[in-house]
Amino acid sequence: MLFVARMDVVFPESMTDETKADFQVKEKAYSADLQERGIMKGIWRIVGEYSNISIYEVDDLDFLHATFQGFPMFAYMNVKVTPLAKHPNATTDDFFRQL
Amino acid sequence: MLFVARMDVVFPESMTDETKADFQVKEKAYSADLQERGIMKGIWRIVGEYSNISIYEVDDLDFLHATFQGFPMFAYMNVKVTPLAKHPNATTDDFFRQL
Amino acid sequence: MLFVARMDVVFPESMTDETKADFQVKEKAYSADLQERGIMKGIWRIVGEYSNISIYEVDDLDFLHATFQGFPMFAYMNVKVTPLAKHPNATTDDFFRQL
Amino acid sequence: MLFVARMDVVFPESMTDETKADFQVKEKAYSADLQERGIMKGIWRIVGEYSNISIYEVDDLDFLHATFQGFPMFAYMNVKVTPLAKHPNATTDDFFRQL
Amino acid sequence: MLFVARMDVVFPESMTDETKADFQVKEKAYSADLQERGIMKGIWRIVGEYSNISIYEVDDLDFLHATFQGFPMFAYMNVKVTPLAKHPNATTDDFFRQL
Amino acid sequence: MLFVARMDVVFPESMTDETKADFQVKEKAYSADLQERGIMKGIWRIVGEYSNISIYEVDDLDFLHATFQGFPMFAYMNVKVTPLAKHPNATTDDFFRQL
Amino acid sequence: MLFVARMDVVFPESMTDETKADFQVKEKAYSADLQERGIMKGIWRIVGEYSNISIYEVDDLDFLHATFQGFPMFAYMNVKVTPLAKHPNATTDDFFRQL
Amino acid sequence: MLFVARMDVVFPESMTDETKADFQVKEKAYSADLQERGIMKGIWRIVGEYSNISIYEVDDLDFLHATFQGFPMFAYMNVKVTPLAKHPNATTDDFFRQL
Amino acid sequence: MLFVARMDVVFPESMTDETKADFQVKEKAYSADLQERGIMKGIWRIVGEYSNISIYEVDDLDFLHATFQGFPMFAYMNVKVTPLAKHPNATTDDFFRQL
Amino acid sequence: MLFVARMDVVFPESMTDETKADFQVKEKAYSADLQERGIMKGIWRIVGEYSNISIYEVDDLDFLHATFQGFPMFAYMNVKVTPLAKHPNATTDDFFRQL
After folding, report:
1. Residue A61 to chain J, least CA–CA distance (Å)
2. How many Å lie between the alpha carbon of E1 and the closest alpha carbon of chain C?
3. CA-based angle J49:J51:J54, to the nearest 5?
4. Which residues span the membrane (chains A, B, C, D, E, F, G, H, I, J) (predicted)?
5. pTM for the whole structure
6. Do the Cβ atoms of G65 and E45 come closer than 8 Å?
């Protein structure tokens, strides 16, 4: 099952640049692992914003929530999740290639 | 360049079921052609809504607008377009397989 | 997997009372069937509105969309779907009794 | 009488992880008590958010407000309450089993 | 238990002035009855709008929904209901006199 | 003349519990005085929120603003004021009893 | 007492140009009368919109609502009313000259 | 040319009462000067809010922005500006008297 | 003085394609004239929408409103106008070439 | 390809005036460079707000995002980007002169 998420990151005023950089390193590793395991099917930056659009394939909503909660920056993210179904006009069941 | 669109369809009260069905046939063919030509990289139904999330790869904004305007149901759609850039945490430049 | 939906019904101005009543009869049968099959776990009226809050248990998002699309009044509904996960403070995995 | 609530938790920037953890322990106990007493009929996490959807059965609005105000994290919650009535298409008066 | 409602009336374009006037006569009678029975504790026009703010005292949410649904103009109203509890700064349990 | 207000209280993160409690004592006295003088005709808690709905009878808008500005917690309140007129379906000019 | 209103006019699709022109003639006469009587202190077009910002001086909210309801186009207007008080930085109690 | 502005003031949590009072003194002088020079044609408090509605007559948008930016509290204001044109139903070109 | 406008076009359901095409021809001529006279400095389609972003240079707000009202499709447009001033980081007073 | 952006600047409460001034100097240099290189085609202040409307010509969305991210104040900006296409009523392909 596919879900698309929009994630907006807002860091608190008091966070140092070092802490931010450290979060970004951890975030990158976490995202890479999700991609490698085929959970995160795609992730893109929204132009001009500290936000992403990302797509997830999971079997289970508890697992999906755990996936979001596991993001190192989760406490600083607003996440909005939209469940997706097959569109009648899609010519394939799977648009994504194997990473 | 990638763009994600959200399209919401609202048919007028006076439209007959025949006209709607005819639009849907034309829409399916138009979407299939966009997918075959690699312009529409993916399309999904938003669960519970007469709406889709779709992703487009184009070289040019005039072409992109023409692509939207060419949808048979364009006059009955609200389309919101978001430009996407490569995300630093993406492990690939291209998540989509060749249809 | 559980999903909560809010459905708002808006009938077009031209619809006769007979057509509305006919829709309501069909809707009642459709909802009863979903309840009997354990797909619709609960449905409540939002006080003062022609709207409901309802909860669905399904294994699959395509099936969930098909369930919504199957509502006789689907063309006159705005449906907003929210995916639900187990809450850490829940004392049970299943709050609903078998209908 | 049933009410559905959506609760969004926002902790202040200055709160330590220890304080947060302490709040979560107290919150869990408070929620368990409400469930045991049949006041909270269900509680679910909204996928991707630090939020819940929960359903309450109470006889009295003063009691309901006191119930919300009693949550250990109440000062850090935005709570929106929606009153629910029996839906004409519901096949039962009570969807919830006895916890 | 007290609930405050905001009701906005929107008549369809096709409704004749006679039908509107007829609705208003029925609405007045219905409101008077609710006031006499102590269900509607107060009703006021929002200045400049075809809207009201009204307050209801009821024992039961099903009865409250039935009360709203019984308004002759219900199909042309948007109703938003807010549940009210005793305020700690209120000097009385009941602000309303017996009509 | 009657006005209905919705007041939402948001205390700053740095305010101590003692200061909050002190504000609440002063607020209670201020509200009691307004009720005794017949200026505040009613005040109710919105269930689940740190908010109230309150109704004011005043002769003058400058006096009304001064009344709001006089609330001890005014600096921490968002206040939205709606002017009310007699509703044609009201069976009385005055729903409120003398406190 | 002063109130500022924003009025947005939306004519139904079926209204003929003749009817619109007739409404506009009546509206002009009604507005002129309000200005002459010192009730409407000012009226301006919002640039680019079929909307106005207008200011009213009245002694009474019932009279103010009656004034709005008396506009020939009232049924086609959305009116939002904001009550105004003297500003501490105003150098006069009355900015408006006698028309 | 006339413009109407709505200004909402939000002071930061850390600002002392002395600083606030100092700002208010400077603001009063600045507003008085604008009124004397015929730039600010009127200013009113929105009842219940730390906000004003004010009207400006200027020849130039750069000058208008400089006027707003010159407010001592500018850094703590949200300002929304609406351009105004003569309304066809206005009986005069100038509603304001000379201060 | 420069103003940026966003215009959204919504045609009524009953308008024929011939009428729409006729409006578009008149609109094109009207826009060309505004560009030739240096009033409309630029106009662009918002990708995916029946909307434009356009920039106007005028000396006067009455003239600006008359310019908008003169658009053949004005009755079917929602127009939002934003006044613009010179930005301190602009390296020129005039970004536009003479058409 | 052209994109229009709206940028709103919000500095944190703790930032000193010196830091703000330093940011503004760097921002001015960065903007000047973008203008000289023909990337930023125009930039204007929104009257009354700490915001700008600016137009960008770029070949690539990654480059566009990098351009936004390169603004010295990027961490304090909300940026909303809208893609633009040629409008059928435009009399030229390029409204902007060479800076």
Report:
1. 31
2. 14
3. 140
4. none
5. 0.96
6. yes
